[in-house]
Amino acid sequence: MGDVLNRLQEAVIAGEPEQARELTAQALEAGIAPLDAIDQALNPGMQIVGDRYECGDYFIPDLMMAAEAMKAAMEKLEPELLARQEQRQILGTVVIGTVDGDIHEIGKSLVATMLSAAGFQVHDLGVSVPADRFVEQVKETGVSGDSVPVVVGLSALLTTTMRNQEAVIKALQEAGLREGVKVIIGGAPANPEWAETIGADAYAENANEAVEVVKQLLEV
Ligand code: HCB
Q1: Strand pairing of 93-98 and 202-203?
Q2: How far away, in angstroms, is 158 Cα from ligand 1 center?
Q3: Cys-Cys crosslink for 156: which of 65, 90, 162, 193, Cβ 3.0 to 4.6 Å?
């Protein structure tokens, strides 16, 4: 089990999508749980990639290839994660996206997948999402009679874009929608203090914590 996960981590670090896809399939065939593959191979692999970029050993193309490898692995894991949620009882609705100016999508997509697997209806708005698009989706979600209450998930990976998490909260306030929703933020530069500063309801360090926090916020 350790060997295939080690090789999967190496495939992410080396930016090899085909290998990552193949090794993920092997891991699943060997009975490794999708969450173990994420926690023990993919996330640590991306962490190493980030460290190498930070110290100048890796460059943007390396980051992009590592991200492609992680995405290839996630494409195999997502159906498995969702399949494990057999009887779907909709616990609430989540509108999630990476904020304006920020194209980092892996963490946001992982949170979206985990919430979906846990029984939430998830509207994933994608990356670089303007504040008014979140507002529009929250309005639409309410109007279309989707399950309520609604949680808004805001991802930001850059110190320059984390301000836009606050911009979304302000836009929700201006539209008179803030009282009706819970806001959870995440992403590498965010932390609980930042959540408090910008008036978010909660912060989550990772996708598992996001699921727990959203459940707590909605009391489900
Ligand atoms: Co990017 N990048 N990047 N990047 N990138 C980071 C984020 C740096 C930290 C790297 C570094 O310098 N050490 C850095 C940011 C520095 C800073 O602002 N302090 C950085 C930079 C500078 C940049 C560019 C500006 C580089 C450039 O062009 N000069 C550029 C920005 C482009 C833009 O957004 N406008 C850029 C581009 C890229 C790509 C495109 C090459 C690629 C993204 C590809 C993609 O997503 N499709 C990329 C990547 C891959 C990274 C690193 C290496 C990994 C990010 C990642 O996917 N992590 C990252 C370094 C790092 O974080 N160690 C680096 C894995 C996921 C699973 O973790 O933290 O995203 P996560 O998500 C977690 C967690 O935060 C939480 O749960 C998730 C799952 O566990 N969470 C939430 C996330 N969102 C949540 C929302 C919630 O509501 C709740 C919880």
Answers
A1: unpaired
A2: 7
A3: 162
At 85 the pLDDT is 64
| Distance, CA of 13 to chain centre | 20
pLDDT at 1: 56
Whole-number pLDDT of residue 121: 85
Residue 94 · residue 119 · CB < 8 Å: no
* CA-based end-to-end distance of the chain: 35
Structural domains for the chain: 2-83 (1.10.1240.10), 93-218 (3.40.50.280)
Tokens representing 150 are 């609604």
- DSSP one-letter code for 177: -
Residue nearest to atom 28 of ligand 1 (CA): 60
Six-digit token pair at 176?
């008179």
Q: Would you state the pLDDT for residue 117?
A: 67
Three-state secondary-structure class, residue 127: coil
Ligand 1 pocket: which of 55, 62, 157, 191 to mutate (most atoms <8 Å of CB)?
157
Rounded to whole angstroms, how far apart are CA atoms 207 and 194?
18
